[in-house]
Amino acid sequence: MRLTLILSFLALSLQAQDPSGEEAIAKVFAVLSGAETKLPSLEERNPLLQKGAWEALAYIDRSRVLMPSAEDLMEAVPDYYHFKKDYFLFKLINPKNHNEYGFEGQLKYRWEKRDLVVLSRDGKEEKDRWTLLYLDENYLALKMGDLYVFFTKTRPLEH
Fold it and tell me: For residue 54, which of 139, 159, 144 has the smallest C-alpha distance?
């Protein structure tokens, strides 16, 4: 499956390069398949994570495929995450209208090794656990349950 959204976002965000569509898809697939990883130290993660906001771009559903190929890449709805010091804001796309956000909220988080632990708003209850697959100044990839999700840096929204 060729993802035009992936191609346009990656083409814009890879500054010094002019990737072809195949190269952009190959980059996303390499990250989501685990062939390419970038795991900054714990001290480096928060500055990278908190500089700007993130928008979901593509995913692979690992519950449906054990040995993924580039054809298994799916275009993600552009859910939005903006990480701050110890909490993050999220805006999830309305499933009935993909042109607007539906559910929004704020939750706390902390790091435990490679896991970004999602906590309740008051920080007392663990809600979820996402495993870091990749993080640099432009890209983020997380294992969120059975979904391996690739994010790209986006402009922060007014909150």
Answer: 139
